[in-house]
């Protein structure tokens, strides 16, 4: 009987693109937790900044995977991207539950958080286009990762750090490749 159950469960293994998307999510988490972001780039080690940094890394991978829609493995890229995005949403849901958010409130809070994630996707989609420039990216990074709005006084270290982060984003666009991502491999730029 146990052998039959094992046989049935092995037939329902996750599709390779789903497994790859989940692996890419893990690599995005790992990269966004690199210590230099918090020591050298001045990102606050608090939940909002960590969320923004994670979203940025996931969005970078999603953006690179959709760069060449004519590629032969376009469907695999779409499926992998969806699996990556789903892994992000599942992790956010899990985090809320771990923080003690009740089951009845999770759906409502996830809906609000989903709107934030989609807003980031849209904004970064525009900012990662070839027409966008580093100062525009740095400005958005100031508003999201560094949580500074236009009413805040000028904080030169944040301006400098946001410019460094914008350079990092530019480098990531060059080091990440569709073919490597579809094999579950990220190549993040060095943090300096």
Describe the structure.
It holds the Pfam family Ubiq_cyt_C_chap. InterPro entries: Ubiq_cyt_c_chap, Ubiqinol_cyt_c_chaperone_CPB3. The structure is a single chain. The protein is mostly helical. It has one domain. The chain has nine helices and no strands. It has helices at residues 2-11, 16-32, 35-39, 47-65, 74-98, 103-127, 134-144, 156-175, 178-182. It is globular and about 65 Å long. The chain starts with a helix and ends in a 10-residue tail after the last helix.
Average pLDDT rating: 87
Element string (H = helix, E = strand): HHHHHHHHH
Give the distance, in angstroms, between the N- and C-terminal Cα atoms. Answer: 56 Å
How does the overall form come out from the CA principal axes?
globular
Tally of distinct domains: 1
Structural class: mainly alpha
Number of helical regions:
9
Beta fraction? under 5%
Task: Find the count of extended strands (DSSP E, 2+ residues).
Answer: 0
Unreliable stretches: none
Biggest beta sheet summary: none
Rg for CA atoms? 18 Å
Overall helicity: over 70%
Family: Belongs to the UPF0174 family. Belongs to the CBP3 family.
Protein name: Ubiquinol-cytochrome C chaperone family protein
Domain Ubiquinol-cytochrome c chaperone: 40-177
Pfam families: Ubiq_cyt_C_chap (PF03981)
